[in-house]
Structures are given as structure tokens and as C-alpha cells.
Amino acid sequence: MSEPNSRIWMIWACGLSFMYAIVVAALPAQTSSTAPLARATTAPPSVTFTTLHSFDFADGYEPTAGLVQATNGKLYGTTSQGGTNEQGSLFSITTTGMLTLLHSFDITDGLMPYAGMTQGTNGMLYGTTYSGGASGGNGTIFALTPGGALSSVYIFCLHAGCPDGSSPYGGLIQGTNGKLYGTTQSGGANQEGTVFEVTPAGSLTTLHRFTGGDGAGPLAGLLQATDGNFYGTTQYGGTNGDGTAFSINSSGNLTLLYSFCSQSNCTDGEQPVASVMQTADGRIYGTTYYGGGNAACAGGCGTIFTISPAGQLATLHSFDEADGAGPAGSLIQATDEKVYGVTSGGGTIGAGTVFSITPAGILSTLHSFCAQPCSDGANPFGGLVQDTDGSFYGTAAAGGAYGAGTAFSLSVGLGPFVATNPVSGKPGAAVKILGANLIGATSVTFNGTAAVFTVVSHSLIVTTVPTGATTGTVQVVTPKGTLSSNVPFRVR
């Protein structure tokens, strides 16, 4: 059974020094060539940060992934360690901080879920574990009901040589065809990792086995862009051995888009470890853990980049430690059209940041972690989610009241909205609309075309794409006002 490499984080804060050991697959430590900078970036006055929950080992330890908002209005997440069996846990948490432990892993159903979950159109939550599984497997795909019942979908590496892949570190996405897509860090014919698709019933197809030249060791999940293709990154491999960006279609035809560290001193970044994302204007954004045009960190503090489907890469921002270092979580676009994310290190104390960045590359540090006495958490590795209440929610892998990590919220004053699951579909396709205070809704429209709908609860409306609908904003009229979707619904 393979294990992820270990790294030790040394955090100095609040006149207190402590050693924190965090297991993160294949990620070397972010080290600095200089002492941590004391410069603080002034956050906009509307920023409000709240620690919602401090993990206590029994309910989980080291939440390295972000959260997902489900159609029942709750947030769901994972911890890579801790829980009843000390092998990781699954939990739900309300926006007010009420946490429920749903499942504690053991070796038979998986170990170390590093990635977050995604909710399928069938209502189930799907995720991966890095190791474990019945019959000596090395990693799993699981399904979880919102109430906490877990079932196994697929177990990796049950055959010699792990031709189907091994050790899935990244999360899953559901494609427009209803299948789930993801990556494994290792395994495959060349032991460099794989790209796979799997049905909710557990029928897995390996779409691509990395060779090293086209990438190796993917830690990130995938993005299905509006062109229908999937986009992703590998931490290693490529022309320079420092990672790649690639696209792949559902038939398994992979195109190498970019090899990182192709510029002198890796000013274009190296070792991308987070999933890429696409903004409403069609641009694809991502991050690299190292590299960039700033020497404040040994090897660079990491970058934010954009890349076109043709492989044209532009570095949007190079972190300088004071504004963050080591971005390991995925980015998201919020309803104000800015992109938001976290860094695992850097900031005022060196324990990570929350930031926003404009399309023009203007970055603002919204929060630096490890405020006295680190009750807010430290070292956020997972990305943020914008809840339909308008606020952002996330996790920090360390810190908190017990040193086991935290769940937090951050508000910048953005208003509520609605989200659709899925975000695209043909006329007649079923769609779930997630929001808040939906009771009493009087109208649902798809880019102005009225739809027949049913209000299921305060957080859920079910409907179908109306005939004649075109791509655009979904709007719900409620007694408290009109709510618009955070992303345009794409009519296929």
C-alpha cells in the first residue's frame, strides 16, 4: 500500500511555536529563503471572517479539502485523518457551524480522503480515498447519501501492476453525460497516473495512462469546460519535469497543452497541484505551487495563471510570501466576477491566506491565518465554495482550538443567489435549483423563458429546462426578491 509523502510545517505565531506534521501527497514543503515578511495586506472593510468549527480529532483531523453545498442546504466535507478509526472522516456542517460526523473510514472502505466531494444529479455525494479498500485495494471511489450512508463504487489496484490506476488524490466531477471523471496519482501502465471515467454503478474505463512525457503524478481533479473537453494538470512530468497542463476528450484523446518551467527560473510556475476552473468569460484559470517571478520563497512562492484551449499560458500573478505562498486549492469565480482562492502558506504570519484577484491581475489579501491564538486555523489546502447565501466557506488543515483544523466562513458583503445542478442541459432535462428562503417562490425562468417548477424545501426547487429556453441566467422570484444564478445555464 503506497502512502503519500509526509511534510512538516513549522508555524510560528502569537508568541507560540509548535510543530505541525501534515500528510500531503507528493507535495514538498514550501520553504522560504528569507524570514517571513511582516507586511500585512489591508483587507476591504466589509470582510468578516468567522471560525465555524474546530476539529477535535474525534470528528476529524487535517481537513485538506474544500466544502461542497448540497441541495439540502448543508455543506459537506472530508478530513484526511481522525474520526473514530483515525483514518479520515466525512461530515456535514451548517452555515452556522453545527457539525455532524457522518462516517469514519477504516481500511476496508478506504483511507485518507484528501479530496472533497461532489454532488451528482441523483443526489448522491461522490468522493475518493487515497488508499485502502476491500481486498487489498489502493484507493477507492465512494458514494454517500446526504444522511450519511456510505457505499463503495470502485476499488483501485486489485490487479497486478494497477493498470486501472492507484491512489486517487483529486476529487471527482460529473460530466454532462452523467458519468464521473477523475485522476489517479500513480498506477497505469507506466506508473505515472491515469485519467478515468466511471459510472455511478461502478463501471470504470481508463481513458489515459500518463507516460511522463505528457505528465506524471496528477494530484488535481478535472474541469469539463464549455467546449465539452476535460482540462487538468499533473504535478510532474512534461518537457521539464515540473508538471503539465492538458486537455482530454471523453474518448481518451489527450493533448499536452503546456509544460511548466519552460521560462527561465520557472517564472511561469512549476508543479501545479490544484484543479483548473473556467470563468464566465471562458478563460481557464489555475495555480502552481512553486515558481513565479518572485524570489521571496526558495523555488518561488507559486503563481496564478490563465491558459487557452490552444495552450497559450499567461502568468496573472506571482505570489511574494507576504500575499501568500503555495496555492494548493482550486480557484472559484464569485458573483462579483472576481476569482477567489487560498494559499497554504505565506501571509502576515506564514500560515496561509484567503485572496481575491481581478481579471486584470489585481490581488487583494482578504485574510491571513493564524491570528491569536490560531483559533481561525492555519494552512488551508482546499479551495473555497461560495454558498448561495453569498458568503465563502472553507477549511484550514491545522490550527483551531485543538490544532486539528477548522471550518470557516468569510463574507465580503455579496448577496444571495441560486445555483443549478447541473449547469447545462437540453430542453426537458431535470434541474435542481439550490438557494435559500425559496418557500413561496412564484416564478422560475431560464434566460427569460418561464419554467414549471416545484418548491421542495426552503433550499431546493426542482424544475425542467423549458422548451424554447436559451443559454443565460436562471432567475427565481421569491417573496424576498429576485435571485439570479451564479453562472449562466447552458442550454445544449
Sum this structure up briefly:
With 492 residues, the chain is mainly beta. The chain folds into 2 domains: 48-411, YVTN repeat-like/Quinoprotein amine dehydrogenase (Methylamine Dehydrogenase, Chain H); 419-491, Sandwich (Immunoglobulin-like), CATH 2.60.40.10. Helix content is 0%, strand content 37%.
List unreliable stretches of 5+ residues: 1-42
General shape: globular
Count of the domains: 2
On the 0 to 100 scale, the average pLDDT is 91
Looking at the structure, the CATH topology of the largest domain is Methylamine Dehydrogenase, Chain H
- The number of strands is 40
* Rg result: 21 Å
Biggest sheet statistics: 4 strands, antiparallel
Distance between the termini: 43 Å
What is the fourth-level CATH superfamily of the largest domain? Answer: YVTN repeat-like/Quinoprotein amine dehydrogenase
Plain-language structure description:
The chain is mainly β and 492 residues long. It has two domains: 48-411, YVTN repeat-like/Quinoprotein amine dehydrogenase (Methylamine Dehydrogenase, Chain H, 7 Propeller), CATH 2.130.10; 419-491, Immunoglobulins (Immunoglobulin-like, Sandwich), CATH 2.60.40.10. It has strands spanning 6-13, 16-23, 48-54, 68-69, 75-79, 89-93, 99-104, 118-119, 125-129, 140-144, 150-155, 173-174, 180-184, 194-198, 204-209, 223-224, 230-234, 244-248, 254-259, 277-278, 284-288, 303-307, 313-318, 332-333, 339-343, 353-357, 363-368, 385-386, 392-396, 406-411, 419-421, 424-425, 430-434, 443-446, 449-450, 453-457, 460-464, 474-478, 481-484, 490-491. The protein has a four-stranded antiparallel β-sheet, with no helix packed on it. A hairpin with a 5-residue loop joins strand 22 (303-307) and strand 23 (313-318).
